[in-house]
Write the structure tokens for this entry.
Amino acid sequence: MPEFEPVLLARINKPQSAALETYRADGGYEALRKAVAMSPGDVTELVKSAGLRGRGGAGFPTGVKWTFLPKDHPGPIYLCVNADESEPGTFNNRILMEFDPHQLLEGIAIACHAIRSPTAYLYLRYEYGRSYRVLETAIQECYAAGILGENFMGTGRRLDVHLHRGAGAYICGEETGLIESLEGKRAWPRIKPPFPAIEGLFRKPTIVNNVETLCCVTHIVARGAEWFKSVGIAPDPQNPRDAGSYGPKLYTVAGHVNEPGCFELPMGVTARELIDVHAKGVWKGRKAKAVVPGGISMGFLSADELDTPLDFNGPGKRGCLGLGTAAVVVVDDQTSMVDVLYNCCRFFSHESCGQCTPCREGTLWMTKILERIRTGHGRLEDLDLLLEVAGSMGIIPGTTICGLSDGAAWPVKNAIHKFRPEFEEYIRTGRTSRDPVAYAH
Amino acid sequence: MSVLSEGVRERIRALFPKYPNKRAVTLPALHIVHDELRQVSTEAIREIADLLDLHPAEVHDTMSFYNFFKDEKHPLGKHRVWVCRSIACALRGGEELLAHACDKLGVHPGETTRDGRVTLEFAECLGACEGAPCVLVNDECHMNISHEGFDELARKL
């Protein structure tokens, strides 16, 4: 296999990488020119044949999603760009937006052409202030250059991209929560069906795509489906339902490593290679105890599972929920899994939107049980109680509307299944952990 | 006497053409008012609702869902400082940094210093995990913040 060259991150270290002028000098917006000369159906077919799967966490085939839109709808059809990146440990969208906004805007324009959408809303988490400012400038540059606006790219059609800032809620990353939030309501995910492609934003057909996904679209149009399929992992021939794990992927590595960062690699790199080669090993000469493969909602790999390839299938084969956002978080061998799990549970309890009782109550009570264990009052039965609560919440057991709850349950299931002796010892010896922060409420 | 100035109203109205209905301007309008007045009071909710052709309860319902917005009982200080407590930061001293920030400013998370200068908040993952622990000061993220680094940031506020 030839040496892998980064594509998505190719420009981020260049001077003025966010400017339209430098983007164009590097061949930018040629893919869009090519796309608008094609029929929308052909662009969709190209993305479908490339095997691109959504990078936001669920891994749904992007081109297939686009084909779910009704044919001959009077419109408007909307594109929502999901830039509500909030999964703990994840930051690759931020890097794409801050350092190469035009790569994203080109992908947005191509997608809008493919799905016949005159309007894209980019839903950006509030905390990404710098991304907001960079994107705002880039969008203005596009309007001035005729890439957006009336008669975009000389097509005779109008295309608008609007930035819309969130207000600090993780649930807005769920596509129908995002739509509700954009409509000006509380971000309570919708019951599906209807899926957004049929009835989404403002009750119109809507496609919601992640930032990295749309950046991949730009390169698929520029380089072709065969190029995309030459990178990554082909479908498992034993599994007729596997759509493969093609293309380059942005992996982020954080936590107890020497050099945390964002690395673009062919899909399917192992957790071990990411940690040892790219992030320069576990810090302080220690060993990894547990590794989050793709944001905390995916659960944990144990130290003897680090050769797992991080493609769409690998983490699932080790009992994790999936690849998620490919955000790797490393926990060293000096850290208590009780404390790590408590941190995860507290996050989901804070971020549960409260709509479905099993999630609202389950995340809270799992946090409370772990609080009890951490004050030295835990009981061995608490571990089975945690598993019982975790097993009762989510789409998989069929008790909630969205997948936040499955993501909240997964770290609990994995931690107790894979690290049970440590939890038992913690409880048996009456260990305690002190929360350094005093919360007023 | 209205609490929303004509300038604020104008900025909110300017957003109407971006959306097919006015309700979608709720979050942007709340941000504009919140930035300007450092709170969204009951009267401000009424006036936003009036501008957007909504019931005040609809605006309040949305606003109260997002812990982000402060009401008149808990107005924001001049600056808002968020210290991340989620996993990637917590593994590298984020919670100790938050505790230090509390000591330094003499407040609990969610509270404002008595002089009204700084509101301190805990944050859930700020998406700057390569620079953990990180701190968001108003709209700008700062990475790899030591306790001394925090003191330095706080001094400039």
